[in-house]
Amino acid sequence: MGVRNETLVVEFVFLGFSGIPNSHFYLFLPFLAIYLITVLGNLTIFILIQLDSSLHTPMYYFLSHLSSLDICFSSVTVPKILLNFLLQRQTITYNQCLAQMFFLLSFTGTETTLLAVMAYDRYAAICRPLHYSRLMNTKVCTLLAFATWAWGFLDAALHTALSSNLLFCGVNQIQHIFCDLPPLMKISCSNTHINEIVVRIASLFVGGGAFLVTVLSYCFILSSILKIRSTVGKRKAFSTCASHLIVVIIYFGNAVLNYNPPRNGYSLETDTLISTMFCIITPMLNPLIYSLRNKEVKGALRKVLGS
Fold this sequence. Notes:
Layout (H helix, E strand, L loop, with lengths): L1 H6 L3 E4 L8 H29 L6 H30 L3 E3 H34 L4 H4 L2 H26 L9 E2 L6 H7 L5 H35 L3 H29 L8 H26 L1 H11 L2
């Protein structure tokens, strides 16, 4: 019983911003601006897709899910960061930490899988155009969307259940800016061997599987585009997947840096920067990429605004 009391941690302290003097003063407004842009941008994309019948296609159906995910993704971390800036203390309770990690992992797994589904959709549209309506009918799209969310939440539930059994032996300082799986395992005094094995297996199936589907889809897409004789045809085919390809590169690039650090780890400053890019900046960029590069989205926005 005495050992249990010694290992009980009721609150964690984030060290991510500790190297920035008066960080609460300098960072509150930029983080608030980023969060507002993220929510407003993704909400605009979502509403446009619901209102404009010309966007009621599989590609935009999945994009509406991506916009919803990015709002959720950002909302898991940024409001707590903003609150801590206001309170001038970088803390989170044990239960809040587990809840934050659960939802963060859920949305990460869901978005990773959703991007692979969106890549497959572009493959079907460009490489199998005659069969596209059958391959990506309403029932198939609904099932794929449901499967991505279910997969993300089941994966997160497994990691969170295992993490809830970890002991911290009084150590409560997390070298991060929010609760995530790697930094929590790093400060635990429990044997994390099982946790690490599960993380590797999940990374292989969730991250690796989704990345493989995405890469293969774009290999087939590129091959099909190169076979098109007309320059205009090539440009038109590539434009239908250019925005998604940019989002994929940014997302998977940041995900690899965030969840596959070098053996010795990153410095606190580098880790804070990578985490900020992955969980805070990336959700803000996605609606900007789709709105700036997509004529249909811009056309729908002009139609709604009546211009």
